[in-house]
């Protein structure tokens, strides 16, 4: 397996980091991974290790404000920025491998980005893989807190808060949990306005 790294200019000239893993033989397809909120492209090596032996080329970028990409941590002005960054990344990869089918794999928040992407660019993809996309909230929310959140979203959208994410809920694999807790590129503090 060959590992590559690089950068490209995203929307508003934000520097976006990416990496790729290429099989020894000619790939039969491309899988673009879109990572979860507060994570980065390097957290998906388990998937890479499963797909490389099947002769897929794997690419992933760090979303703006995540991992090694530029931007205010965990903040974006609109979902369109994530979608258009992904489109630029798709174009770069497709230019190198025009005839190969392209699939996107999204985890959690990455799944949501892919859904937005397919609404606009569905014809470009041969398939999507959606994992752990939240389709409903985890219980009844506090009405007072919704009002406060809406106010802070308008007044101080870039302020960072700890949402109380429990890393133990991310996986049954204790090694994955420990890696997540100790990963310096993971930043699970949210901004008052997140997509």
TrEMBL record:
Transmembrane segments: none annotated. PANTHER family: PHOSPHOLIPASE-RELATED. This is Serine aminopeptidase S33 domain-containing protein. It comes from marine sediment metagenome. InterPro entries: AB_hydrolase_fold, Hydrolase_4, MAG_DAG_Lipase. Residues 26-192 form the Serine aminopeptidase S33 domain.
